[in-house]
Amino acid sequence: MSDKNKPQKNKSQKTSKIPPRPTAPTQDAAGGADQASNSQNKQIGVTPQELQKKSAVATPIVRAPEGENVDRRTFIKWAALGWTAFAAVIGGYGTLLLRYLFPNVLFEPKQSFRAGYPDDYTVGEVNENFKETQAVWIVRDAEKIYALSTVCTHLGCTPNWLESEGKYKCPCHGSGFYKNGINFEGPAPRPLERFKITQAPDGEIIVDKTKKFQQEKGEWTDPESFILV
Amino acid sequence: MSENNAWKKFQSFVVNTQVWRAIFRTGIPTTPRQRMMVVLNGVFLHLHPVRLPKHAVKVKYTWCMGGLSFFVFLVLTITGILLMFYYRPTVEYAYGDIIDLREQVPLGIMREIHRWGAHLMVITVWLHMFRVFMTGSYKPPREFNWAVGVILLVLTMLMSFTGYLLPWDQLAIWAITVGSNMAGATPFVGTGGPGSSLLAIGDVNFVTSTSDAKFAMLGGRFVGEAALLRFYVLHCIGLPFVMMIFMIVHFWRVRKDGGISGPT
Amino acid sequence: MIEAIKAFINKFTNPQILFPLLAVVYVFVFPINKFFLRINERLGIYKLWTNAGGALMIGTLFSFFCFGMTDANFRKIVTKPDNVPIVGLLFLVVFFLWFAMKQAYENDARIAAGKRPNEAEDAKEKILVWPDLVYIELIALILCSVLLLVWAMSLHAPIEEPANPSVSPNPSKAPWYFLGLQEMLVYFDPWLAGVVFPTVILLGLMSIPFIDNNTKGSGYYTFKDRQMAVSMFMFLWLVLWIFLISVGTFLRGPNWNFFGPFEYWDSHKLAALTNINLSEYVYMIWMKRELPTNILLREMWGFLVLGIYFGLMPLLFAKTFLKNVFKNLGPLRYSVFVILLLLTLSLPIKMLLRWAFNVKYIIAIPEFFFNI
User: Fold this and answer.
1) Beta strands in B86-232, from DSSP E residues, in sequence order
2) Which residues lie below 8 Å from residue C75, measured CB to CB, with a gap of 6+?
3) How many helices and strands, by DSSP H and E, does chain C display?
């Protein structure tokens, strides 16, 4: 046998494996589209009996050879491995996709600002100078100054300070807060937040919005949450 | 009489030209066979079956609401594409572009059609669901398609919600502020939600204002530039894409579940 | 005289009166079982679903709006561009409700007489899609386009001042189709009203075909073949969805206070809203002592109430008035059904508790944002 012969032989084997034309409709018939295949059968002249014979002959070929049977344990092992790998890949991609939603750099305004000197604020006043630019009220009472967030703890609207009624009232859902930020009416679940407030060496007030103090966690007693005056 | 004849001649001439026959395979559908072929051969009419039980075409039964929802969706797609020619999704330009769409652009009702169309679609979708409920059409074998319909309802509302931000006016940012704060209150994955403080190791919190559900939605800690862009992309590409897929499934299943419901 | 009528309507439309009233009316209009059906028939309420009844309902609604338009305050609310769709929706909902129920009652009468529903008569005849359906679709599309074009030409789309993050408009409202949810926000915390409840609503909607295992009433309008399903749906759809949207649109004014439809929107209207938690009721008012510092001890009463509500009520219902439902659905379907039912009812219950006793939270643990 020479090398030349080999590919030729292969070729002939291949061509012989291709089923003869009439078998194509039989596959159709097995698929169940009976009307259409019946008419086609008539055209090529295959009787139902022949059809049955052909399919009877065809079935053993479909079955896997005896030797290749996989036992149950191996199958489960490989299936588990396969599915685990699949889930891991999908999960990995999912995590990456989720991470994609959170950029590494944020282009948002600076979170701390200088707010003048304690003497700029009168006792009992709610100062609204920084409401527009910084979303902060600066409140001075008899003994201290604190910075109150203007973000409603319900759903983030901006309440209005109603001087005559002595309360902050949120227009979105009607939450009301006392002057010190404690909630007393409407749906707000907790008091307004306070920000870190300190004094620079020259005595100027610095408000740092990155650090928040929440009353319900008992954080309003923290010395960073107010300035004693 | 002769005029009529001339018209007939002209008609048969047109219908028999090679161009006409190349486009419309079946000719003028006058016989029942041709009428069936029109539906079978056309890609768009193929949405329908060839024949229907009579109750299924009665307005009294269907109220036309499903079809109208789809139609309004198409109107919204077209007007939306046209609006994109003039609208720039940035904090600087968005509001002005919306004003210009009315004041400077010819045919200045494009945005009106889009906005009112969006409202109309919400209404038609609701009424469609109401009709489907009242006729018991969700019952087997159509359970799955009802669920697909519910998903389409959600998508309709989300489309509306994302579109609401784009004019960048007071109405827009406060509606979205409220909506996104709700996302921030999601249990476990929102900073304002219950359980979020439990997802921490020692002092390191995993759910912070830069890593929670609200942030994923807005691309920032508050409604700003990034949020506008995200909502714009979702509104114009992301959600319509998902919606198309579900609509395909919805229409396909109407046919496959035995066509429009009816008494058995 | 007219002022007196307006004052009366303003009083009457306060949701604290209107909502309980609607709930009572609902029970008789959409009878949930045989008992209420008999009352419904005795009182003749089913006549709403005749031509005369339809004319009465649409006429009442129409004349109310006509009457209202003479009032400046009402006109201002109704003609606000974003509120126009809701006015349209109200008419459409009433019309289609009547349209569906009318056909349902006609079919019920036929079925009672041993005949098949109207749809079955029609279904005997098969028709071709081209041209019969295509024509109808074309006409519907043209009418819809005309409506949309006229609407677009006659009414500007709303645009307000440019966005300003430091000033919330008063009141600031969500898009109208979310106003039902926004109304829930007054009674529940955002994590419930904004996240959990919407999710439950959607899952609940999807589960309808799997819970409702009644094989009758598929493919035709009917009421009596599926009385319970229709009646329950009507409560969700009309009372908890459409009605709450209307409240949010027409009756919520500055500072999210209630305003009658003819009332001037005064942003300084005072409304006492001071609310009390259940724990404060138990310890401070009934026991007259301080709140315990231990959170679990403080909130155990709330947990107890919820435990009874979601734990014991389903069992109790299964033994009593939902006995037949339990038998029909089996334990799994019944559990899903009854939990959905209790969640649904928790909204009106919480509303009533708020209005009657100023209850803010059943369980209040603001330390963990866990308030119910």
Assistant:
1) 200-201, 204-205
2) C68, C69
3) 17, 3
Computed over every residue of chain C, the mean pLDDT equals 90
Last residue of a domain, one of A44, A63, A82: A63
Select from B29, B169, B223 the Cβ nearest to the Cβ of C130.
B29
CB B191 within 8 A of CB B180: no
Q: How far is it, in rounded angstroms, from Cα B221 to Cα B183?
A: 12
The closest alpha carbon to A125, from A116, C257, A133, belongs to A116
Residue C352 domain flag = yes
Distance CA A134, CA A128 (A): 10
Nearest CA in chain A to C188: A187
For residue C202, tell me if it sits in a domain.
no
d(CA C52, CA C42): 18
A 10 A CB-CB count for B25 gives 12
d(CA C86, CA C176): 7
Interface check for C190 against chain B (CB to CB < 8 A): the answer is yes
C331's enclosing H/E stretch is: helix C323-357
Cα separation, B186 vs A96, whole angstroms: 21
Q: What is the pLDDT of residues B138-189, one digit of tens each?
A: 999 999 999 999 999 999 999 999 999 999 999 899 889 888 888 888 888 8
Distance of CA C271 to the CA centre of its chain: 25
Q: Would you say A229 and A143 are in contact if contact means Cβ atoms under 8 Å apart? A: yes
CA distance A183 to chain C (A): 9
Whether residue B26 contacts residue B34, with contact meaning beta carbons closer than 8 Å, is answered with: yes
Q: Strand ranges (DSSP E) for chain A?
A: 112-114, 125-127, 136-140, 144-149, 160-162, 167-169, 176-178, 183-185, 194-199, 205-213, 227-228
> Given phi > 0 = left and psi -120 to 50 = alpha, else beta, which region is C358?
left
Domains, chain B, with CATH or none:
12-51 (no CATH), 52-256 (1.20.810.10)
What is the Cα–Cα distance from A126 to A138, expressed in whole angstroms? 6
Chain B touching partners, 3 or more CB pairs below 8 A? A, C
Give the helix, strand, coil percentages of chain B, each rounded to 5: 65, 5, 30
Cα(A78)–Cα(B2) distance, integer angstroms: 82
Q: Which residues of A touch B221 (CB under 8 A)?
A: 106, 108
Can you tell me the distance from the alpha carbon of B181 to that of B166, in angstroms, rounded to the nearest whole number?
18
Q: A78 falls in which pLDDT band (50, 70, 90)?
A: very high
Q: What pLDDT score does B243 carry? A: 97
Which tokens hold the place of C178? 């979310």
pTM of the model: 0.87
- By Cβ distance, the residue of A162, A165, A172 closest to C172 is A172
Q: Is the dihedral of CA B88, B94, B96, B97 positive or negative?
A: positive
- Give which of B227, B153, B123 is closest to B183, Cα–Cα: B227
Total domains in chain C come to: 2
Neighbours of C344 (CB within 10 A): 18
- Mind telling me how many Å the CA of C336 is from chain A's nearest CA? 30
Complete edge-to-edge strand list for the sheet that includes strand A176-178? A160-162, A167-169, A176-178, A183-185
Residues of chain C with pLDDT under 50: none
Q: What angle do the packed helices B143-165 and B239-256 form, to 10 degrees?
A: 160
* Tokens linked to B56: 């299924």
Does residue A124 share a domain with residue A37? no
Structural domain including A19 reads: 5-63
Query: C109 lies in which domain range?
Result: 2-122+220-256
Min Cα–Cα distance to chain A from B208, Å: 12
- How far apart CA B164 and CA B176 sit, in angstroms, is 8
Looking at the DSSP assignment, which residues form a beta bridge with residue C370?
C365
